[in-house]
């Protein structure tokens, strides 16, 4: 299949627009008048301080976040029996919000009536509620709502903005069902939902993977006479793209045009990102062409997404060429793009190019962050140079860049891979000095590495420490210890640990790797019936055999049985059992192993596999998988 000339296509898009233009400076801001003028005015002839004067002072102090002077003004107004109006408090609430002081805002709200004889309305209430929510205190926001709205003798009647804020808090907490109930109550409270209401609820539903409900709201809002904005469509398109439903996402874009609602940068960037995540780079570039032809200017995010998409397809060199073309047109490239490129070049065996790119990044004044440093460290470790990677780690720390789990785990794996387990253990100990908490990722890597080099006793010490600190092992850690025990001939202990896994949470459940370790150990000890029982349990737990599983049993049937068997009947039966469970791809994978070993399945089995694969709803999935295999 001819490869798409991505670089040329995108460069045509770049040439359609001039280079980036720096933003002009806005009008100069004159400093506010000093309050000394106001303090001196009682001696200035017949002039007398008015309420507007105090309001100007309040605005000035609120803008400068001078809350001490602000309190003095309020006290002075109170002493002079001034009339407090709500707009003064609204200015102060906004100032508290900018200063991240929700407690101050709540306290002042409750004092408005008693201390200043100003009855708060829904405007003040909404302002304070917004301050609380913007700080992420969603539980407190709901409590504030219930105490204020449902209180006796309250003057607060919720409006649409109130409900929008309430829905936002509920959705942020994941209480989407409650949010739907509030949404349905709004018309009964004479507050019909507006476009922001629908947008908030749709976003909450999408985040809970309830896409169909979110999409159904689109029709409902139009029926109610509320016309969707680009933001509404973007929320739904983003939800569908994350789910991988690009067909429906594309239909929504068509729907946008029909409604006279033009897609914007966010729309196109979301779709391009979704296509790149699915490996459909050619369609992503076609969409970029459509974006340009619609006079929608691509931005840094657009090109960064396509560059990252090229890297994921193993085309890091093409991605570097595109980055160069993008930079020549004046577009910036951030640290995350550099990280993807450096990582991609190392994985593709282009270590020199990766190093050159690192140097280029530094020369262009792009300061590396944790992500870029980690990509370089991981690449050097993949290249078998953990000592050089450790030097990069030291530089990273010296420059005030904090290593993360990926940084340390890459370096630990690098030392284990190089056969330097002592250095990996020492790195584990050094992590505490940099206030890096040992989590299950680190424990898993350390346990796996120690078991790989045959140091089971030390691995078990780390295992016990992990359990004592309340850190739950994952499937990798369990599998590593089981492997170590099997290698040491302690299969009974390994099986005890395996049965322990079966009682744990999903992330600690045995996977096909765990099963293969036990299959191999049992078959080597001629416990073939036990291995078959374990295989039956594996199938019952919806875990499909892989190529390694098949090869273990093929070798056992040929070498351990008398007379030996070729394994054809065994694998054929396994295919049927998987088909009966509607696990078609697992069955087709075993057929692939049979064909590679010149063990053709029975005609009836072959017919069933073909029929299942050719069902209309599965054809596209099979075709997509073939294309992915060809691209790789």
From TrEMBL:
InterPro entries reported for this sequence: PPR_rpt, TPR-like_helical_dom_sf
Keywords: Repeat
Domain of life: Eukaryota
Position of the signal peptide: none
A Pfam family that the UniProt record links to this protein: PPR
Family to which this protein belongs: Belongs to the PPR family. P subfamily.
Protein name in UniProt: Pentatricopeptide repeat-containing protein
Species of the source: Gossypium gossypioides
């Amino acid at each position: 299949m001819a490869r798409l000339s991505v670089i040329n296509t995108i460069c045509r898009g770049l040439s359609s627009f001039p280079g980036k233009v720096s933003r002009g400076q806005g009008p100069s801001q004159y400093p506010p008048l000093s309050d000394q003028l106001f303090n001196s005015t009682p001696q200035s002839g017949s002039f007398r301080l008015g309420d507007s004067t105090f309001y100007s002072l309040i605005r000035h102090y609120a803008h400068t976040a001078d809350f001490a002077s602000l309190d003095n003004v309020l006290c002075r107004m109170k002493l002079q029996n001034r009339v407090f109006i709500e707009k003064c408090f609204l200015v102060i609430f906004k100032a508290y919000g900018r200063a991240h002081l929700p407690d101050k805002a709540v306290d002042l709200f409750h004092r408005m009536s008693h201390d200043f004889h100003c009855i708060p309305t829904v405007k003040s209430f909404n302002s304070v509620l917004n301050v609380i929510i913007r700080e992420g205190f969603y539980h407190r926001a709901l409590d504030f709502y219930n105490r204020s709205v449902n209180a006796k003798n309250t003057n607060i009647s919720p409006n649409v903005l109130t409900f929008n804020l309430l829905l936002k808090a509920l959705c942020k907490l994941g209480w989407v069902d409650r949010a739907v109930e509030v949404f349905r109550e709004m018309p009964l409270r004479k507050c019909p939902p507006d476009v922001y209401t629908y947008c908030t609820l749709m976003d909450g539903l999408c985040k809970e993977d309830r896409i169909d409900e979110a999409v159904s709201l689109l029709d409902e809002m139009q029926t109610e006479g509320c016309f969707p904005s680009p933001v509404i469509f973007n929320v739904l398109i983003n939800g569908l793209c994350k789910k991988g439903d690009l067909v429906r996402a594309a239909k929504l874009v068509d729907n946008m045009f029909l409604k006279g609602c033009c897609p914007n940068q966010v729309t196109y960037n979301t779709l391009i990102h979704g296509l790149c995540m699915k490996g459909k780079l050619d369609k992503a570039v076609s969409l970029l062409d459509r974006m340009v032809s619609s006079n929608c200017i691509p931005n840094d995010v657009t090109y960064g997404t396509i560059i990252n998409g090229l890297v994921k397809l193993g085309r890091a060199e093409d991605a570097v060429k595109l980055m160069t073309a993008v930079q020549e047109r004046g577009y910036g490239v951030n640290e995350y793009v550099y990280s993807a490129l450096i990582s991609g070049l190392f994985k593709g065996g282009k270590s020199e190019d990766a190093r050159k790119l690192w140097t280029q990044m530094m020369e262009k004044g792009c300061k590396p962050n944790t992500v870029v440093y980690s990509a370089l460290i991981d690449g050097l470790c993949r290249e078998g140079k953990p000592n050089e990677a450790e030097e990069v780690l030291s530089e990273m720390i010296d420059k005030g860049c904090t290593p993360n789990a990926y940084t340390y785990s890459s370096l630990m794996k690098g030392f284990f891979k190089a056969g330097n387990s002592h250095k990996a253990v020492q790195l584990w100990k050094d992590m505490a000095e940099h206030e890096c908490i040992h989590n299950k990722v680190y424990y898993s890597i350390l346990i796996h590495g120690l078991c790989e080099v045959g140091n089971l006793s030390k691995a078990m010490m780390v295992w016990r420490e992990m359990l004592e600190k309340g850190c739950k092992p994952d499937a990798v850690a369990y599998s590593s210890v089981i492997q170590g025990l099997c290698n040491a001939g302690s299969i009974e202990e390994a099986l005890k640990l395996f049965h322990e896994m079966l009682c744990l949470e999903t992330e600690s459940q045995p996977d096909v790797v765990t099963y293969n370790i036990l299959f191999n150990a049992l078959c080597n000890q001629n416990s073939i019936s036990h291995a078959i029982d374990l295989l039956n349990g594996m199938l019952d737990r919806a875990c499909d055999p892989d190529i390694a599983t098949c090869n273990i049993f093929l070798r056992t049937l040929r070498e351990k049985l008398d007379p030996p068997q070729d394994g054809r009947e065994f694998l054929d039966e396994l295919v049927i059992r998987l088909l009966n469970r509607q696990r078609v791809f697992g069955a087709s994978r075993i057929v692939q192993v049979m064909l590679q070993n010149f063990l053709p399945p029975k005609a009836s089995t072959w017919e069933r596999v073909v029929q299942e694969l050719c069902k209309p709803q599965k054809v596209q999935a099979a075709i997509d998988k073939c294309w992915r295999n060809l691209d790789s």
